[in-house]
Amino acid sequence: MSLLQITDNHDWKDFKSFLTDEATAEVDLPNLQKIADINISKLSFDDNPNLLIFPHDLNQHGDKIGDNCIISLNHRNEISTSNIMGFVGINETQLDIKSRFAKEDKEDYFLHYMLERVFSINLFDMKHSSSEEQIFDFLIYLFPYFLKKAFAQGLFKKYRRYEHNNANVKGPININRHIKENIPFRGTISYSTREHSYDNEITQLIRHTIEFIKTKKNSSFILNIDNETKECVNQITMATSSYNIRERNKIINKNLRPFQHPYYSEYSTLQKICLQILRHESIKFGKEKDKIYGILFDGAWLWEEYLYTILKSKGFKHPQNKTNYGGFNMFLKPEEDDILDKNSRKLYPDFYKDNFIIDAKYKHLENGVGREDLYQLVTYMYCKRADNGAYIYPCKDENIKSSPYQLSGYKGIVSVIPFYIPQSIECYEQFKNKIFASEDNILLKVKMPTT
């Protein structure tokens, strides 16, 4: 096995500098070429069941992770990366893509900290390595997060067909079964009904996952991590009265087709997490030839979700374009004529409240903001009548100051706010103590943006 390390947003780099000898190059280069320059949207779950990508909805984020490649190789076999970070492998080759804030051969504290905040999990003892057991443990740690997101849409129910044989006929009569069971006539009639039920293949899959996690000595505590998780577990337990541990493979097979539902959209991700946890014993990471495996994160999405854990305490809303959650109208609804209404648009900034719009950027903004990004923020500010707008981006230089600019016209303020990511850190606790100061500074800036 070869473990190659690189960072996100890395320009072309000589591939051979990763290798220890030419023999390794003969193995790793062909493997990397199998995943290079392929849009993530073309990597299907069916073909690569052990590849986990966040966000799961590849078009959820404005930067469209699905249009990115994991890596790119040019004609000289030099390698480059985009916003994608995490761990990915194919055959004998494993690639560790750290955040660009990680020092060479050091732990990626920034990535681990964002994961801890976004997914509400404790990663204090989790190394940034390629161990398949650590990937498996991470899947279990993610389970409560996606369980709660799914339950926010309600306990999943679907129509099920029930067979009855009594005198209270409430549905179509099953002639064949009636003849078989009720001749000579006994006063009962065989019929079927179609009713909504909480006990179905999706909730059964979740129940099997819960029971499986309970058997894991070092991770069963995750089911009691908070009151909300415990309540979700209790509801699943009560809803799945027909649970039978011996039917686990049967339930897994019923869920192999990806789940899609316009209302219960979050259950699609939960289904995938459950399948990967339950199938871990039978499908090992990287054991199938030419299959891609690992866990990948879109840095722009993760950065945005992390900032929300900070900004929500100050009343900022976090709209979701894909689910039409939040946002505000670009046009006022006309009273009589509906011409504009037919062409109305909803705007979904990353974060906003009454007088402030914030755009989260995982880009380098030390040299300025791009034209399209600038026009977008100003449009949001104008339609919301917000006096303040800001870009927040991560940086390595502690001495970079915020840059406020006053717009002509109605005189709104646009600020470019650096978020310092601690450097030269000896341990994770030290990193956390220093990044707390950066978070406090951001909260101060959004409170007093013109200073």
What report would you give on this structure?
This protein is an alpha/beta fold and 451 residues long. It folds into 3 domains: 2-154 and 200-300, no CATH class; 158-197, no CATH class; 315-447, no CATH class. The chain has 12 helices and 17 strands. The strands form 5 sheets. A 5-stranded mixed sheet has the order 1-7-6-10-3. The longest helix has 20 residues, at 132-151. The radius of gyration is 26 Å and the shape is globular. Mean pLDDT is 82; it is low at 124-131 and 282-286.
Helices and strands in order:
Layout: E1 2-7, E2 13-14, H1 22-35, E3 51-54, E4 72-73, E5 78-80, E6 84-90, E7 93-98, H2 109-119, H3 132-151, E8 158-166, H4 175-182, E9 189-197, H5 201-214, H6 227-239, H7 248-254, H8 266-278, E10 292-298, H9 299-311, E11 328-329, H10 339-342, E12 346-347, E13 351-353, E14 356-360, H11 371-384, E15 388-395, E16 403-406, E17 413-420, H12 428-447
Parallel strand pairs: 1-7, 3-10, 14-15, 15-17
Antiparallel strand pairs: 2-5, 4-5, 6-7, 6-10, 8-9, 11-12, 13-14, 16-17
